[in-house]
Design goal:
With 308 residues, the protein is of the alpha/beta class. It is built from twelve helices and ten strands. The strands form four sheets. A three-stranded antiparallel β-sheet has the order 3-10-4, with helices on both faces. It starts with a helix and ends in a 9-residue tail after the last helix. The protein binds trimethylamine oxide. Trimethylamine oxide is lined by residues 29, 76, 79, 105, 146, 148, 171, 193.
Length: 308
């Protein structure tokens, strides 16, 4: 019996089949989850075992730093740069390079609201028409955020606009709120990002806050409010990167090479989101559809000597 176990253990080691699974982080918006499954399927083609670990973007950094999780396919500048840069500098997390995509994450509205709030997309228009975005008895405007934005309350305070934040739990909840509002042309101001399914489906704009500078978040004296931080928007034309645990390359070298080559443009990421948020596919089915549609793209990343 022991001999048989030792024999199979040896086969397992020799083929890599029994090595530890690569743990891929899944967050709470569609493109990230679909693309996690896309890279997972490609790792499997290399003979690796794959597991998925659901995490918030706050908690993922601890998991990546300690090797509890190993891969993050979408690190967005607007919401994640601070922690990412700090951990890369400390050698805890590896910067696996850029996607081609240029990103933006910020307050956003569908174009029909402009009729009731002249001056948009300039943020100063929000000073005059906050009540248009109110709900119930309150006169305060309501801004719907997801669980990722920078401190919105701090921005509201610094820019002195009469808004309150209603935080939803996921991209899916934001999508539902947006789709419902658009159907009946209700006022809505919410967190959105690009690339996303919204890009090709709903005409709208980001609010133009004062331009982002890193000092806006570190030096209260910077910007139009001399007392408070966050008197600016998120970056425009932001970067999108991939990240791994520091031990990744040593343990899974073919996967490391593949992930470095994995680079998507805006359209490729937006369609990953649309397969779920517009077409209603499951994340897994969306990943399979994506792999079929973009076969030429991903075949270019695959080192044939790594495939089994
Ligand atoms: C992190 N996100 C893409 C939802 O802004």
């Amino acid at each position: 019996m022991i001999r048989i176990i030792v024999f199979f253990a040896f086969i397992g080691l020799a083929t890599g089949v029994w090595s530890a699974p690569i743990k891929i982080i899944t967050n709470n918006w569609s493109s990230q989850i679909v693309l996690s499954h896309v890279i997972g399927e490609l790792f499997k083609k290399q003979g690796y075992e794959v597991a998925y670990l659901e995490s918030s973007i706050v908690e993922q950094w601890g998991a990546l730093s300690h090797g509890v999780a190993h891969v993050q396919v979408e690190v967005w500048e607007g919401t994640m740069a601070t922690e990412f840069d700090r951990l890369v500098a400390a050698g805890r997390v590896v910067d696996m390079g850029l996607h081609d995509a240029k990103t933006r994450e910020d307050w956003w509205y569908p174009d029909y609201v402009e009729a009731a709030c002249p001056g948009l997309p300039d943020w100063k228009a929000l000073k005059k028409c906050s009540s248009y975005f109110s709900q119930g008895d309150s006169k305060k405007g309501v801004y719907l955020s997801g669980p990722w934005e920078k401190p919105d309350e701090a921005r509201i305070r610094a820019l002195q606009i009469d808004f309150e934040v209603k935080m939803l739990e996921s991209g899916d909840q934001l999508n539902k709120a947006l789709k419902a509002a658009v159907k009946t042309k209700q006022p809505i101001l919410l967190f959105n990002w690009t690339p996303n399914w919204v890009d090709s489906r709903i005409k709208g704009k980001f609010i133009e806050f004062p331009s982002y500078k890193p000092e806006c978040e570190t030096n209260p004296n910077w910007g139009i409010n001399k007392k408070f931080l966050y008197d600016c928007g998120n970056p425009k034309g932001g970067w999108l990167k991939k990240a791994t645990w520091s031990g990744f390359a040593k343990n899974w070298s073919c996967a490391d090479t593949l992930l470095r080559a994995f680079s998507l443009n805006n359209q490729q990421i937006a369609s990953a989101a649309a397969f779920v948020d517009v077409d209603g596919l499951s994340y897994k089915a969306a990943a399979n559809k994506w792999l079929t549609q973009y076969k030429k793209v991903w075949q270019g990343w695959v080192d044939e000597s790594c495939n089994r």
